[in-house]
Amino acid sequence: MAAVLGTRALNRATLARQLLLDRSALPVVDAVAHLGGLQAQEPQEPYVGLFSRLRAFQPGALSGLLTGRRVVRTHLMRRTVHLVTAEDALAWRSRHDAMLRQRVLGVYRGELEGTDLEELAAAGRAVLADGEPRSMTELARAVAERWPAAGTRALGEMLITALIPTVQLPPRGLWRTRAGVRSVPLTAWLGREVAPLSSDGSDPVGQALLRRYLAAYGPAASADLRAWCGLAGLPAAVAALREELVAFRDERGRELLDLPGAPRPDPDTPAPVRFLPAFDNAILGYHDRGRIIDDGHRGLSVAGARVVLLDGRVAATWTVEAGTVTVTPLRRFSRADRADVAEQGRELALFLSDRESDGVRVTGSQG
């Protein structure tokens, strides 16, 4: 009989894997790789995610990785923009292609009915072959004459997020920089080809994704893996690796898989206050998010709310304006809780303002 892991044990395992129990000394590029990327449709949010995970994180280090082409902003897991290493983008992209197409079709099937997607992809690549960065709208308008019934939004979404692996170019995503989205093909930006799918059915990329996911999110169920990457066709990878994995059960009886020897801290391990950015994968990377957020607050995780972890769980939301971080508790805080949250809030305010402001305000609890 597999051992049962309670919610608190799973919480501490998640915090440890997500570098939220103790800040890590990993180099920034290694942290991005360990986490399997950071969700990044809001361009500045990965900086907060890394601030809460790394010791003495300097935002210029991440900006330098973007301009140095060692990390990229691209549509990948769940058809959302992720910040991933160049190596992972090249290795994983082909395995996500079918999912990306299906998710775009799920939104624009009517508009794209009758459109030959291979012809559309070829037309888009021909436009981008001149090396000029383009917005989604510019690319769609360049091919729209051939598919006038589809509409530019549907054409642009299919081209940029699904048919052609692209990257969003800096200055988009650089520290404290506002810039629109302009894209070029991933292969042109990196000077390397995307790895093709395996032809023998062994799914090595699926196996690599499973190992990487468990290293950063485990112990977890197969449904959690699907929720993170958006890929439904991973049972073969799970079956291939099952003998090298260890199995547990959660309190609901679900099977949880994990890497042997991966950190599973004592459930009573103290957990420090941590501020998470919008759409952080520490929450979104699971089908069952109960290990870190109460069901009553689950909507916050998909609404783009920035949240505060107290004793390892979502306990407040936060905003920042004019250099002051404002924390709104979701439950009553003790005096000690308020002090701990305020202390970490001051550090965050200093980080976000380039050390010009340490303003923090903890309001009364909601309701």
What does it look like?
The chain has 367 residues and is of the alpha+beta class. The chain is built from 15 helices and 13 strands. Helix 7 packs across helix 8. It is globular and about 65 Å long. It starts with a strand and ends in a 5-residue tail after the last strand.
Mean pLDDT: 96
Largest sheet: 5 strands, mixed
How many helical stretches?
15
User: How are strands sequenced across the largest beta sheet?
Assistant: 9-10-11-12-13
> What is the 3D form?
globular
Would you kindly provide a brief summary of this structure?
Helix content is 42%, strand content 15%. It is built from 15 helices and 13 strands.
Note the main attributes of this structure.
367 residues; alpha+beta; five-stranded mixed beta sheet; three-stranded mixed beta sheet; 15 helices; 13 strands; 42% helix
Task: List the topology elements.
Blueprint: E1 4-5, H1 7-17, H2 28-34, E2 38-39, H3 45-51, H4 59-67, E3 71-75, E4 81-85, H5 86-112, H6 117-128, H7 136-143, H8 152-163, E5 166-168, E6 183-185, H9 186-190, H10 204-217, H11 222-229, H12 235-241, E7 246-250, E8 255-258, E9 274-276, H13 281-284, H14 299-302, E10 306-310, E11 313-321, E12 324-329, H15 335-352, E13 359-362
